[in-house]
Amino acid sequence: MTNKSFLKISQFIVVVSMFFFGMNISAQEKQKVDIESGYLERRPDFPDAAIYTKDEAGQVYIVHEGVEMWCDQAFVYLKDNFVKAYGSVRISQGDTISMNSKYAEYNGNTQFAFASGDVVLTEPKTTLQTDTLYFDRIKQQAYYRSGGTVRDTASVLTSRSGRYFAESKKYQFLSNVKIINPKYTVNSNQLDFYSETGAAYLYGPSTIVSETSTVYCERGYYDTRGDTGYFVKNSKVDYENRTLYGDSIYFDRNKSFASATNNIRVLDTINKSVIRGHYAEVFRAKDSVFITKRAVAITVRDGDSIYVHADTLQVTGKPENRIVKGFYKARLFKPGKEGEDPTSGKCDSIYVNQKRGITKLLRNPVLWSGENQMTGDTIHILSDTITDKLDSLKVFNNAFLVQKDSLGYNQVKGENLIGLFTNNELDTVNINKNTQVIYYSRNDKEELVGINNTVSSSIQMYLEEQKITGIRFIKKADGKVYPPSMLPENA
């Protein structure tokens, strides 16, 4: 290689090296903070600082890459691109965010700010107050760790620590979070709040308490401006004497309304009742509950329970005057106390008035009491309003009672039927108008002695342990007792 060639290669390497190293030096250079106004002084006890103090023209004014700072006095470390600001400090970023404090620090290289002493961060919709605040301009995030308060148009939010995301206008509150609103108070472990919309997202055990309701959830959403919410995970709404549980709950405070989906329970603490299903609507102001999808209402009284099941249930009225309505494929079941026979029924629709102690089985009703089955156009069951024990029943139009015997069925029919209960067991039955009976008559040894087939204007039947033990015909009885083998086929 000639000396001339070697010289050219050496020159090329030098040029390339200067190009790349020059780029690296340029990339590392940071724009210096610019002091626009203020009285400059130098103090020997701060040899590295240029000290600026406000003058007759106004406060010290500093700018840096889109951020502006005002203060009464500033210690500017030009070598480090660092500012310490004292007295009535205000830092502004465009027209969206401003921060006021007694003291602040700003690093022009990292674009990181620190403020302390009555710190107030203001953005278009909210104001944050805290004692100490950190602000990262690159990430556009501000955070505090010593307690803070955020105010928007309607509420005050407080927490032990929190973070503000400027781009999404979101606050993330952590530890001892509280929202205080004239209408309600929210408490939560963690809460995300969007200042533009007023949306609050709840995480962990959370409550929303007002004069008329208490909401609990472990995850949910609440619109602080529209007063509506959606809650999941162990959620419930307590309306004083009625509590709604569900896998997910929608809540509207202004309408006093809540709806729930899947695994529904509605507890009535005054009447000791619970309604279950898979969809429910609760109207607090109307004292009304609508529930469907495998709906069942359970009421506990005097050690006994009453079950009402239907495709759809509606419960209305004040606690002392509850009315239960069941629609489509309604069923009733009362298991009875120990030693008592159960009572059950089915119909198309059911009506229960707890204050009056009346239950109505409507359209195609069937009622079972012990071994007795009763049908008719409509059946009414009356209960003692104090003890809740069965008192009587009425079957209107086309009344029919049947009871199984070992050889056949005891049967009685008429226009209307009235039954009387003792200790929740049917003991007397009166059938009126155009009555007819087929009764398997037995002696004291329970031996069959004949089959009674009689028509009468009225019949009275007596029962012991829910079994027919005697019949009394009232007025115009016409019939006979047949030997067991001689009962006519069409009788």
**Tally of extended strands?**
36
CATH class of the domain at 373-491: Mainly Beta
Principal-axes geometry comes out as: rod-shaped
Q: What number is the mean pLDDT? A: 85
Number of helices: 1
Which fold name fills CATH's third level, the topology of the domain at 373-491? Answer: lipopolysaccharide transport protein A fold
Rg over alpha carbons: 42 Å
How far apart are the termini? 135 Å
Query: Structural class, from secondary structure content?
Result: mainly beta
Oligomer: single chain
* Strand content range: over 45%
The portion of residues assigned to helices is under 10%
CATH superfamily grouping of the domain at 373-491: Lipopolysaccharide (LPS) transport protein A like domain
Please mark out the parts with pLDDT under 50 across 5 or more consecutive residues, or reply none: 1-28
Architecture of the domain at 373-491, CATH level 2? Sandwich
Fold and architecture overview:
The chain is mostly beta strands and 491 residues long. Among the domains are: 1-29; 373-491, Lipopolysaccharide (LPS) transport protein A like domain (lipopolysaccharide transport protein A fold, Sandwich), CATH 2.60.450.10. It is 5% helix and 66% strand. The protein has a 36-stranded antiparallel beta sheet that branches. The chain is rod-shaped. The termini are far apart.
Structure, briefly:
The protein has one helix and 36 strands.
